[in-house]
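Data availability excerpt. The first of two example chains:
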Amino acid sequence: MKKVLLRMIYIISILLISSGLNFAFAQETPIPNLYHYQLDNGLELFIMENDIVPLTYIEIAVKAGGIAQTKETAGLFHLYEHMMFKGNSKYPTAAAVQRAINDMGVASCNGSTGAEYVNYFFTVPSHLTKEGLEFWSAAIREPLLDSKELENEKKVVISEIEGYFSDPNWIYQSAIQKNLFPDYPWRLDPGGTRANIENATVEAVQNIQNTYYVPNNTALFVGGDVDHKEVLKTVKEVYGNWKKASDPWAKPLPPQRSTPSDTTRYLVIPHNQISPQIAQVELYFRAPDTALDTESTYAADVFGSLAANPKGRFKNTLVSNQDLGITSSEYIGASYYTQKDSGRLTFITVMLSPEAYLPQRAKLLEQTIRTEVIDPLITDPSYFSAEEYASVKQRSQDSRLLEAE
């Protein structure tokens, strides 16, 4: 029996407006023991006090990654991330960097390049908080960007890219991105292309450093067994002379298209990780972004939580339609992941007997969600009950407390 993963995309139009925040002084936060500052050079600092264990988590994040790429530079931010661990003014070689990490007793040190930010992080014993802050200061401000190391690291990154080509999940995500965001799909793929990596030069990665790795485009997070006043004092000492630069986001990015297609598009992919007894069917909608419609992203978040109710109207609508072949509310979900540039709302279902009229059932699912979920949700204020809203509010508060711990 053929294993099939059926993917669908349905596009809706969203009207977007812009918003932004800027803080000059210490700000109150909604989370107890969390302190927010901004240095004179624009560096944002978040400090979370929690003395349960004698450890300090340090993370430095840059507003870059996929969202800052062009078609010609896609992948270079990921390549730059690799170069961050290959030597700097304080630790001149990759071996010296690793030795410093080991000497601080770091169990795990890493960096990641995402669609909307690049971050670097580790946890150190709390008495080495200053040393940890100095480590990331040297790494992020004064990398050597050696040409020989760059050529070696190109091979590593290209190997990672080519490894994706046999991954059905990557193939599927790439197809979704190109259909849902046809103008700038590379903003969601920080991996980039082999050609871009092969052609990368030291000058190109230095341009990334000079443009994006600047204090007014960076946030520093320190959490654990620390005193916020002491951390602020140390951060001013270590990072205070980092020179402010031009805002790389002064010119707004052209937004992703709000109506990528005039028709529903169907994508089908065989998937060796899906049981032959089932088909996973997903329906994608273009949804709001924080850069252009922050308020609507809150509504989308709440909808995702409301839709999780196993006895709610949304799941019961799909389960009660026997033609869909969805046997339990456990096999239905809806999710929204907040993004600055590429919001999307996803409905996920699992259908039995994929050999039986699956294309027709997939189309029926689309019609059912459009006419029996989305339309009533827009017109009927009581689609979700007051009890459901109260439950979601309580779960959100509980989740925030757990995350703070």
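And the second chain:
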Amino acid sequence: MSAILTTFVETLITVLSYAIIIRALISWFPIAPTSPIIRILDDVTEPILSPLRRIVPRLGMMDITPIVALVLLRLLEPLLVAGLQGI
């Protein structure tokens, strides 16, 4: 059972990481915010990015919140996996 949960956590963190990267890259292009892809990416990534935006300051016009989120996800992954393997 713990192998299934470990695989799920690893996959979830990978998918979230890709979603954050894609959202950051798409933000450079003029795409309508009503686009279904944009709405899905916003729904998936906003619960992670929104709390971080309150803590992480902007660097001029640059929002480094996606970078911070990716680092935190990668630091959190081994802790979660180790905890699940200990079950």
